[in-house]
Design goal:
single chain; 16 strands; about 0% helix; mainly beta; 9-stranded antiparallel β-sheet; elongated
Length: about 190
């Protein structure tokens, strides 16, 4: 069985109650109330890819936020590239001021549904990140991240997400793809 893991996602953005909220996706998502107002743009620079593997019956592949790979019950295929997902959150202060700002964000990963395809069942779990203070991401539980000392119009935070792919194969093979549902919310701007 060959398993190729890619995570397509679509953009979504809205501004609610004065706080910017954006879904991380493959294309930039911009949340902006009025021209010149602060906004949040979120992009997925690369998708979570588990590569290609042969799964005789069941097994798992763990991909760390640092790119490390661990296999259990699977046979790796050398040509299958792996990589953690990479996201960038860009805060645009909307004005030309250069006063140092600290932007506090909440980042939330929602549960990814299991995939059933051609006799193969696959689930994502055990998410990890390289966000400071948040090495583990639990679906449905927000983590706090900070962009410090923002002195230019736009400031960014880039982070990576890894996880574990569990595969059970009754028969057949599959080309698996999951969306990685992650949202970011500006909770506070201090300056």
């Amino acid at each position: 069985m060959m398993v190729n893991r890619r995570a397509p996602a679509g953009p979504l953005a809205r501004l609610a109650g004065g706080a910017a909220l954006a879904l991380l996706g493959a294309a930039p998502a911009r949340a902006q109330l009025v021209p010149g107002a602060p906004s949040l743009t979120v992009t997925a620079a690369s998708q979570l890819r588990f590569g290609i593997m042969v799964v005789p019956v069941s097994g798992s592949r763990t991909l760390g936020a640092d790119g490390s790979v661990g296999d259990a019950g699977v046979i790796p295929v050398a040509s299958g590239a792996t990589s953690p997902a990479e996201f960038t959150v860009i805060y645009d202060r909307g004005g030309q001021g250069t006063q140092p700002l600290t932007i506090t964000l909440q980042i939330l990963l929602s549960a990814a549904p299991p995939v059933l395809q051609n006799g193969v069942v696959a689930r994502l779990s055990a998410f990890t990140s390289d966000l400071p203070g948040a090495p583990v991401l639990v679906a449905g539980t927000p983590v706090t991240a900070t962009i410090s000392n923002c002195v230019t119009r736009t400031c960014a935070l880039t982070f990576h997400i890894g996880g574990r792919l569990d595969v059970l194969r009754a028969f057949g093979s599959a080309n698996l793809a999951f969306s990685l549902p992650v949202t970011a919310l500006v909770t506070q701007v201090q300056g």
